[in-house]
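hey so i finally got around to running the thing on that chain from the lab meeting. sorry it took forever, my laptop kept dying and i had to restart like 3 times. anyway pasting the input first so we r on the same page abt which one it is
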Amino acid sequence: MSKPITGVAMMMLFEDGRWQLDDPITKFVPEFKALKVMSGADENGRRSIQDMQRPPTMRELMSHTAGFGYGLADQHPVDKLYREKGVLAANGLADMIKRTAEIPLMFQPGTKWSYSSAVDIQGYIVEKLSGQKFGDFLQQRIFKPLKMTDTRVLRARGQGEPARGGVCRQPEDRQDRRSEGTCSAGRCRPTSSRRRWNPAAVGWWARSATTRDSHR
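ok and heres what got predicted. didnt touch it at all, straight out
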């Protein structure tokens, strides 16, 4: 549920007039002004880099056509760099932006589609535009007005402010036994689980109290 809720937050700020579809991302994330674009790699893994023709727009960020990678797969050289840089293991959204700014785009903005870390970047932009922590914005503008009293933002134990946005829904009087586990791609596993999740992808996670075992 983290991605649609992030989309709601973004559209609320859009309705507030805080951003427009054709605004360059660099208006809100100046760290991306010097982004490069990977134009290819040879059989020896040597990468060819070219200048970005223009910054990605907010429209492209919202539609996964900005050119960012993700790092959940490693077929593309850019995704390999995401894994090497530990983008999804960053210590907070600001650190995630810093690591992303060191990696070239997969393609020139607006020319292709590729599922990416765009929603994570949107979470950072929510913070920049609202002046609030991402979780505080969700609580004040979405969860509280809708009386979503059993929905909250959680952090993986042992982590600082997570790089990835997400929500957990659980009754107030039930302690989540899985909060001590590792989290990845919106899912959480206990430390005693037979299957270990990649520590390069930890962060907030989403689930419903009515589907406690849906990700096992």
